[in-house]
């Protein structure tokens, strides 16, 4: 993996780009953030150890699932679902069990999944670090009940991935003898894809967890260096931070040029938004896909407000290609394409988009990977996680909590009739009565 950040620099952006001396001005913050990472200032920095963990228990369970199941259904939300989805979309082998990820509690989606699967050929993986997430609890309860009513034993159809000691899901796993995997205590949802959260799914879909971790370990080495110009995660975070504080560019668009990486954009958006958006600070991530969004968003990015940075992911080798036939040679618009390949075209489109943004004075960076495989995906996960934690530290915020999400959860529980939240339920009632602006 390499990052070309030339089109972030002043040399290309006519007074609207970063100068090397700008990076110098934030050297003290970079140094402090690096020290915090080194010293594990937050216990949640434990995610840094994930590339070096033993995966034998995960593989054993993965084999058990592969042998017995035609369907594998994940119940989890947020960081407990988005990572596994990236793995399935980008790496799934065709002969592995079909995988469904039920994250939203949309009843229609559950119907669709249940119509497709045969319960007795299915293993459900309940993933929740806390064990207290409403959406996951509700879907788990439905599945547990269904299994029982169908005469199936829950312990033969469930795997619980949760905290090693704490939370109600751990209690259930112990009490009912359900197979389980531990999420290391310090690893929080959005930084957990390289823990059993993602690795069990990887194993079920035919990907060796070691390969994901190998790519992550390689990135780990490069991203452990203090020198900002040598550390891809630090340069990435520092440039986006500088674009915010110097030019008020607060929107960060991730645009991989591959359909199979669409969900990587969504995973990144959760990581970036939930980690950095606090105390009135934060950068707004936006998921995009090239070349599709050139025909949807690019006009705005080039001529609209100068408040964005585009981050491209370029793929050198798609692992397959197709030549455009040399036909209709007498029509000049067609003749242009004949003889070229689709991968040549999509790569030219990525480069042209970066060039046209640059010509308009709009910044972009290009992350290039050689191909989409377990090692490069593992590397991207670890890279973005380190970059996010580092950027949060630059802003002086805690990149691992999400205090603002709690108030919504409290109202939901109050609406569900939680005994000790009567006051909040009353508040909801009053607000509903007052909310009369409607047409
Ligand atoms: O990143 C996070 O910590 C959150 O988005 C969680 O992943 C999400 O809220 C689900 O939490 P849990 O895994 O505890 O069910």
Note the topology.
Layout (H helix, E strand, L loop, with lengths): L1 E3 L5 H4 L6 H6 L1 H12 L17 H13 L2 E5 L6 H10 L6 E5 L4 H10 L5 E6 L6 H16 L8 E5 L5 H8 L3 E4 L13 H9 L4 H14 L9 H16 L3 E6 L5 H15 L7 E4 L10 H6 L4 E8 L16 H4 L6 H18 L4 E6 L4 H22 L7 H13 L6 H13 L5
Parallel strand pairs: 2-3, 2-4, 4-5, 5-6, 7-8, 7-9, 9-10
Antiparallel strand pairs: 1-10
Overall average pLDDT: 97
Bound ligands, each once = 5-phosphoarabinonic acid
Q: Can you tell me the CATH topology of the largest domain?
A: Rossmann fold
State the CATH superfamily name of the largest domain: Glucose-6-phosphate isomerase like protein, domain 1
Percentage of β-strand residues: 5-15%
Number of helices: 18
The ordered string of helix (H) and strand (E) elements is EHHHHEHEHEHEHEHHHEHEHEHHEHHH
The multimeric state of the shown protein is: single chain
Question: What does this protein structure show overall?
Answer:
The protein has 439 residues and is an alpha/beta fold. It has two domains: 2-37 and 214-395, 3-Layer(aba) Sandwich (Rossmann fold); 48-209, 3-Layer(aba) Sandwich (Rossmann fold), CATH 3.40.50. The protein contains 18 helices and ten strands. The chain has helices at residues 10-13, 20-25, 27-38, 56-68, 82-91, 107-116, 134-149, 168-175, 196-204, 209-222, 232-247, 262-276, 298-303, 332-335, 342-359, 374-395, 403-415, 422-434; strands at residues 2-4, 71-75, 98-102, 122-127, 158-162, 179-182, 251-256, 284-287, 308-315, 364-369. A five-stranded mixed beta sheet has the order 1-10-9-7-8, sandwiched between helices. Strand 5, helix 8 and strand 6 (179-182) form a beta-alpha-beta unit. The longest helix has 22 residues, at 374-395. The chain is globular, with a radius of gyration of 23 Å. The structure holds 5-phosphoarabinonic acid.
